[in-house]
Amino acid sequence: MLILSGLILVILAGLALRRYGYMIGLPFLIVKYGGSVLWGAMVYLLVALLFVNRRTQLFIIAATCCFAIAVELLRLVHFPALDTFRDTATGTLLLGRVFSPWNILCYFAGIGMAAAITLQVARR
Fold first, then answer.
1. Contacts of 88 (CB under 8 A, 6+ apart)
2. Domain enclosing residue 37, as ranges
3. Average pLDDT over the chain, rounded to whole?
4. Which of 8, 21, 93, 121 lies in disulfide reach of 26, CB 3.0 to 4.6 Å?
5. CA-CA distance, 59 to 55, in Å (whole number)?
6. Measured between alpha carbons, how far is 35 from 65 in angstroms, rounded to an integer?
7. pLDDT tens-digit profile of 8-43?
8. What b/e readout covers 37-65, taking b as 16+ CB neighbours within 10 angstroms?
């Protein structure tokens, strides 16, 4: 239940950052890369939720990192149906549009932070 609650909070924070980040005066780097950090955390929490019986932290981190890299590399692939999906709000939020190695670093930061927080919460 805690993982699901955290997942919902991360999703809401990401949507709020994307929607209101500039409006409240946050710098470009926070809005741009903060969203990527939150996306990495979201994916980690989704994988942790899917593998709730498999509490091996290393497995969840590795699976999440592999998925995040795959999604970023998918941005290098272009064909009409995929590009049409990327042009939607959902497609942009889930897959993004442009490949960036910086995003991979942000994903890893989000995955690491989410893993550290869930580990601390689980210990309590």
1. none
2. 2-123
3. 92
4. 21
5. 8
6. 16
7. 999 999 999 999 999 999 999 999 899 999 999 999
8. bbbbbbbbbbbbeeeeeeeeeeebbebbb
Name the token pair of 2.
């805690």
Residue count (the chain): 124
Tokens of 73: 């590399």
Cα–Cα distance measured from residue 93 to residue 84, given in angstroms and rounded to the nearest whole number = 14
Token digits of residue 21 = 């980040």
User: For the segment 47-95, what is each residue's pLDDT rounded down to a tens digit?
Assistant: 999 887 766 889 999 999 999 999 999 999 999 999 999 899 888 888 8
- The pTM assigned to this predicted structure is 0.87
| Total domains in the fold of the chain | 1
Helices 28-50, 2-20: axis angle to 10 degrees equals 160
